[in-house]
Amino acid sequence: EVQLVESGGTLVQVGGSLTLSCAASGFTFDSYSMNWVRQAPGKGLEWVSHISSRSSMKYYADSVKGRFTISRDNAKNSLYLQMNSLRAEDTAVYYCARDHPEWVGSFDYWGQGTLVTVSS
Amino acid sequence: DIQMTQSPSSLSASVGDRVTITCRASQNINNYLNWYQLKPGTAPKLLIYAASSLQSGVPSRFSGSGSGTDFTLTISSLHPEDFATYYCQQSYSTMFNFGQGTKLEI
Q1: Distance (Å) from the C-alpha of residue A48 to the closest C-alpha of chain B?
Q2: Which of A16, B16, B62, B64 could disulfide-link A12, Cβ–Cβ 3.0 to 4.6 Å?
Q3: Element (H, E) at A41
Q4: What distances in angstroms separate CA B56 from CA A52, A70, B23, one per listed residue?
Q5: What is the pLDDT of residues A33-90, one digit of tens each?
Q6: What gap in Å lies between CA A57 and CA A50, rounded to an integer?
Q7: To which H or E segment does residue A22 belong?
Q8: Nearest Cβ partner of B43 from A35, A100, A111?
Q9: Residue B99 near chain A (CB below 8 Å)
Q10: pLDDT digits (tens, 9 = 90+) for A43-58
């Protein structure tokens, strides 16, 4: 069974830093591209970042470019999102999501999410 | 950036109704269009990928169509568990952005 479990969400101050983790199991992690997607309170889904299976390609939404860094450790079946210079508008539930094996850019499995609250 | 616009933003319907949600892209995205269902407190669920391919395990009452800039998600006969928020998403460019969502209410 495919499982994605996010962790690391907490309350952090404006301007602070935080690293989120996503532990993957039930599939061959190093064969799949992965993503982070977020949902701010009362708002819709926002794609945040994408990383290819071997980390050769990384993409970011304009809203986080230069502040967030996506990475992965295939030996540990883990995905990460390092978030710097956090803003109030980064407050959201952050989901990790697996790329569909047949259709890159569609996300077939998601975690339950971890809440990041950025407050002054 | 490719902008995705859904309509309507909200929709009231009844069990058994046929419902259609529309998604429009700001430029041609061929068939690089996906649909998701989101319920409060649960992980998003992929329903349709590549505009019309039904994701494994998704009931056949869900269907997708369209190509280019205009797409639709149709639920042929609403079940109680279908009341949720639906999002389209483009995967044509590497900014995999979503539409603003359509809330389907009883």
Answers
A1: 8
A2: A16
A3: none
A4: 23, 28, 22
A5: 999 999 999 999 999 999 999 999 999 999 999 999 999 999 999 999 999 999 999 9
A6: 8
A7: strand A18-25
A8: A111
A9: yes
A10: 999 999 999 999 999 9
